């Protein structure tokens, strides 16, 4: 394998590793009162982390549900079922 081919292969490998690198994501943003406790942090790829914040900024999980219901699901879910889903999210956040 030529040196040029090796460099090209190494570059591609580095880009793939960079793209798939895991980063910490706070479920409840620190700016909204979230902590650095392990129960508030999940590991996701850098690309997914960037996409999440591009879509949802620093919304709370319950705000994301409401946003999705309004914008994407065209208020398909009635307020009562949405409230039940929010309560479930809150309970999972507290666990």
Describe the protein in words.
Helix 3 runs antiparallel to helix 4. The protein has a two-stranded antiparallel ribbon. It is mostly helical. 0% of the residues are buried. The chain folds into two domains: 37 residues, no CATH class; 37 residues, no CATH class. It contains four helices and two strands. The N and C termini lie far apart (54 Å).
In short:
This protein is mainly alpha-helical and 95 residues long. It is built from 4 helices and 2 strands, in the order H-E-E-H-H-H.
Please trace the helix and strand order, writing H or E for each element.
Answer: HEEHHH
Report the count of strand segments.
2
Number of helices: 4
Structural class determined from secondary elements: mainly alpha
| Residues in helices, as a percent range | 55-70%
- Count of structural domains: 2
Cα distance, first to last residue? 54 Å
Major sheet description: 2 strands, antiparallel
What general form does the structure show?
elongated
Spatial arrangement of strands, main beta sheet? 1-2
Low-confidence stretches: none
Mean pLDDT: 80
Q: Give Rg in angstroms.
A: 19 Å
Strand residues, percent: 5-15%
Structure characteristics:
single chain, 95 residues, mainly alpha, 2 strands
């Amino acid at each position: 394998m030529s040196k040029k081919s090796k460099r090209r292969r190494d570059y591609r490998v580095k880009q793939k590793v960079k793209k798939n690198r895991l980063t910490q994501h706070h479920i409840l943003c620190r700016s909204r009162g979230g902590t650095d406790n392990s129960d508030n942090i999940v590991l996701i790829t850098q690309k997914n982390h960037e996409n999440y914040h591009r879509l949802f900024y620093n919304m709370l999980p319950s705000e994301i549900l409401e946003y999705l219901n309004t914008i994407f699901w065209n208020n398909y879910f009635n307020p009562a079922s949405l409230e039940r889903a929010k309560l479930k999210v809150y309970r999972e956040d507290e666990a």
